[in-house]
Amino acid sequence: MSDANLLATEHDDFRHIVRRALQNRSFVVGLVITLTVITIALVSFVWTPYDVTKLVIADRLKPPSMTHWIGTDHFGRDIASMIMEGARNSIAVALVAVAIGILVGVPIGCWAAAKRGAIDEVLMRGSDIVFAFPALLSAVMITAIFGPGAVNAIIAIGIFNIPVFARVARGAALSIWPREFILSARASGKSDARITLEHILPNIANLLLVQGTIQFSLGILAEAGLSYVGLGAQPPNPSWGRMLSEAQTMMAIAPQMAIAPGVAIIITVLGLNLLGDGLRDVLDPKLRRDR
Amino acid sequence: MNTNKLLITAFATTILATSSALAARTDIDIGVVLEPPHLDPTAGAAAAIDEIVYANVFEGLTRIGPDGSVQAGLAESWTISADGLTYTFNLRDGAIFHDGSALDAGDVVFSLDRARGEESTNAQKGLFDAIESVEAVNDDTVVVTLSRAQGSFLYNMGWGDAIIVAPESAEGNKENPIGTGPFRFTNWTKGSSVQLDVFDGYWGNKPALETVTFRFIPDAAAATSALLAGDVQAFPNLPAPESIPIFDADPRFTVVIGSTEGETILSTNNGKPPFDNVLVRRAMAHAIDRQAIIDGAMFGLGTPIGSHFAPHHPAYVELVEIYPYDPEKAKSLLAEAGFAEGITGTLKLPPPSYARRGGEIIASQLREVGIDMEIIPVEWGQWLDQVFKAKDYDLTIVSHTEPNDIGIYARDDYYFDYANPVFNDVIAELDRSADEDRRYELFRAAQEILTEDAVNGFLFQLAKNGVWDTKLQGMWENSPIQANDVTGVSWTE
Amino acid sequence: MFAYVVRRLATVLTTMLAASLIVFAVLQIVPGDPARLMLGINATQDAVDNLREQLNLDDPLHVRYLTWLVDMVRGDFGNSYTYSVPVRELVAERIIVSVPLALLALTLSTIVAIPVGIFTASRHGTATDTATMAATQFGIAIPNFWFALLLVYVFAITLRWVPAGGFPGWHEGLWPALQSLLLPAIALALPQAAILSRITRSALLETLHEDYIRTARAKGLPARRVLWHHALRNAMIPVLTIMGLQFAFLLAGTIIIENVFYLPGLGRLVFQAIQQLDLIVVQSVVTLLVAAVIAVNFLVDLAYAWADPRLRSRTR
Fold first, then answer.
1. How far is Cα B301 from Cα A160, in angstroms, rounded to an integer?
2. CA distances from C112 to A6, B438, C109 (A)
3. Claim: this prediction has a pTM higher than 0.95
4. pLDDT, tens digit (0-9, with 9 covering 90-100), for B377-402
5. B220 closest CB neighbour out of A76, A234, A249
6. Most buried in the list B457, B468, C49, C174, measured by CB within 10 Å?
7. Residues of C with CB below 8 A from A133's CB?
8. Within 10 Å of residue B392's Cβ, how many Cβ atoms?
């Protein structure tokens, strides 16, 4: 419906967009949160307050203090350090899953839009079928069959991103094809593939960016769910979902263990959703008035 | 007049309400961790089966009491010949199965022959090894002849795997168990609970409870909340040791930390390099800090062990200090064995928290000395297939909950892949001996050999974290056998 | 309309067929002999052969697929290996937990979300609107299982108003059963309500800008009347679509919540079956759930087409 408005228009110059972006509250807040989370994840590669693979049983279940900002878990690990490294895991899984969706889904969608007819029909029915599979249930099935672990979690989540991007790309591409500049490109003898690369993709990139942000945040939630049931990243690599499942029984004695990863997930997802909403508004001048 | 009527009604209601509150409760919901695959203890190794039906639904010739002693079961009394080879059992009068048929000697012959026969799917066939023949003398008397004297025979007959079934109903026991116990099976809501109701035709004293519901709650968190919320009134072995302090502080609950027969060990594949090297295994023994595992994984509940033997057994030998926690010693032993640069392998962990949590701690301790184990969590089904049956593993953590099971180290082809002729001789003699002093000597020798060979990482004796409503009495404090015998349980008000 | 229904029905059946083929295929790539896998290494050859026969494993692939499909259509879902009872019975036992749970969650989310959506749309641009929309952002970002943990902690453990988990069964009475579904339903409903209220709000705002609404306003109809009588009816179409999708999601997507509350529902049945390698149950129940999702989407499409005749021709 309204997504068509997201397609780039000729008189949108970059400076204009940036100015609009900086005036958009959602965008700014979302961007700041997201960049902070990403920075924390990157910092964890070179520095964390404590080594999270080292268990110090004597220091277990300590409340927050100056030495351990969010306290320690049942193995005496520093929760702040685990949240930092967990961010790395969540972001990596969700991001690669989005990449799979884009790399496979967008070409499929563009192809369907370029060819129309039977190919389009088959590809879109194919994506209907994938949509019919309850995502989480299927992800559980995939990871259970091929074994738990971060890589299989990525694949399980990535598969469900494919039809999402295929549909978005197809819908957007379909509305670009009848435009005049495409018709003239066609008249000059360019192939469908080349037109898609040179004209269609640049024009649907905005839309893909917005969708990518949404899928990114859904991926964070899905990864948390999979790790929570034990099918995500395996110990000793920290993951927010597994931290939550370990924290469950210790709610009464060490509430920080359950609160910290939950808050981390909420902040990250919130940041990405705000960023996505902001991007949509910024890149789509018409909608800004209404919502 | 209307007012009067109303008053009377109100009064009557109050009396009714009070009197029903005064009468003791007769139902109970008991939390257990695992759902059994079926309910026939003679056709499966799963402890979850016995934990529902043992003593409650099914009975054997003898039974194991709360203190681990052998008591009379369906056999009222017995005599043993002087050479220890002939046992004559006198059966109870009036014992009937839940389908109404009477128990007779033929059922006993059928049950024992079925369990030891060639077609038998009994998981503990070894219990019946010594039996040569079983004969019914008359309806109430059975004579069992052994091929060799067996010190533990009466004890063996008290196992869940040795319960007495009827030929007419034996095949259906998996789904609809029919025994002679004080409770009969009523309903099994798959994935949720099994319900037992009192059996009016029971030969012995009627139990105080009328309805017993076993609810399956595998998850530590769910188990804790179910108790706190009153969904279950007892958890004979709570899978969440971290919650014990909460219940300890709550006057509504009684917490009893008892003993189990569960030796929790770091099982090691003795047949697979580099773990076939005794130096490597000793190095691992020095690398492990048992107390840290007990504190970190079990929140302090558990007793360190140095061999495969229960600390509460009179023949226990204290061997914990043979391999004290000493990472430097571990490193030098590894170097001596030719693995100075370290070892890599896998550590397969079944679902219980002692394994999953303990495994993380052990992996971290082993990493300190250069042994890098990749953690692979497995479900019970996978564990049985991959580890127990196919021996496709390096290390795993599991609690061996069968009582007095040191003999498993003498089994050919057992999943440890351990073979020591000297040890096998000790176990063979143990099986033959009926003399208690000699048996204890042999038990001690067996423990020492296992420690010497550092066959497995001997970690700790699993505690039984019993939590139940303070108004309940008669719950078992210890687990001398895999069972939740509720025949003596009652509400005090 | 009839032609449209027939056309859509054909698509639905094709989709279901393809989906069943995928489920069947995925379970064929499980490494090893499924019968051996299910029975374990120590099983006798006899037992393995029996199971192979029960599963028709010795038939060619296409025959097996067709047999399974025909049996499914007839209502014979095979026997569970773990419990040795017909899968149909297991499904019947669990569906009476899952469907009421999904309906309860959907009801809760709807009775909260639609008024919130209407309220914020009618106060578009005010501080209340902004604050409510910010709150819904949080609602979407909260993982439902984490919310479930907090609910259990507060309402079951601390206040003891409702059970912390488990399901007493409907035979215990309506109220005890509903009580134990309440917390899981609330946990499931929160993110759904957040999404639904945003959709309601934006759908309303969109229709409020359509020409006929402007006309109605210009004619001097009171704003309230315009909102209730004209805008709302039209805005309901996208709202109903989302509700349909959410119901489909709730049917099968409750797997984690069912685990938190240890409810014996369909999601947990599949989860346990996967862990126990009970492939017959996995294959049949997953297919059934997928069919349910497709069917619900189909009904939503029909409702959509019925409400908006233009669509019937557009999707041609």
1. 45
2. 31, 76, 5
3. no
4. 887 777 887 888 889 999 999 999 88
5. A249
6. B468
7. 19, 22, 286, 290, 293
8. 15
